[in-house]
Amino acid sequence: MRLPRKHSMTKRADFARARKDGQAKAGRFVVLSTLADPALPCLTVAVITTRKVGKAHDRNLLRRRIRAILQLHGERIADPKRLLVTIPRPGSSSATYAELEADWLKQAKRLGLLS
């Protein structure tokens, strides 16, 4: 699955709605929040990296890795009409790609996202 612009979450209200009204699961390296919304045309994703995660190059690396994970496993999401927010936790910049992917998949399974 490629992540074109239409899959990007751009409105602050959508971030807040997914975090407030949706389900969230926290793992060792990421926090995954999701909210089903039948009005959406497709899966809408966001990656929020705060300064607590690390310096700018660490945050950029984490964003690239999480986008790669979404591209790889995004087609397996059972109900694509939903908001999906991924937030790396402090300390996740020291994780390898495999560790980050395993944690993301574990949280997605806990939320019942993957088919």
UniProtKB/TrEMBL annotation:
Record's keyword annotation contains Electron transport: no
Reactions catalysed:
Endonucleolytic cleavage of RNA, removing 5'-extranucleotides from tRNA precursor
Q: Which GO terms describe its molecular function?
A: ribonuclease P activity
Q: Does the keyword DNA-binding apply?
A: no
The entry's keywords: Endonuclease, Hydrolase, Nuclease, RNA-binding, tRNA processing
Report the domain of life of the source organism.
Bacteria
Q: What is its EC number?
A: 3.1.26.5
Q: Which Pfam families match?
A: Ribonuclease_P
InterPro entries given in the database record? Ribosomal_Su5_D2-typ_SF, Ribsml_uS5_D2-typ_fold_subgr, RNase_P, RNase_P_CS
EC class of the enzyme, as a word: hydrolase
Write out the similarity annotation: Belongs to the RnpA family.
Q: What binding partners and quaternary form does the record give?
A: Consists of a catalytic RNA component (M1 or rnpB) and a protein subunit.
Q: What this chain does, per the record?
A: RNaseP catalyzes the removal of the 5'-leader sequence from pre-tRNA to produce the mature 5'-terminus. It can also cleave other RNA substrates such as 4.5S RNA. The protein component plays an auxiliary but essential role in vivo by binding to the 5'-leader sequence and broadening the substrate specificity of the ribozyme.
Q: What is this protein called?
A: Ribonuclease P protein component
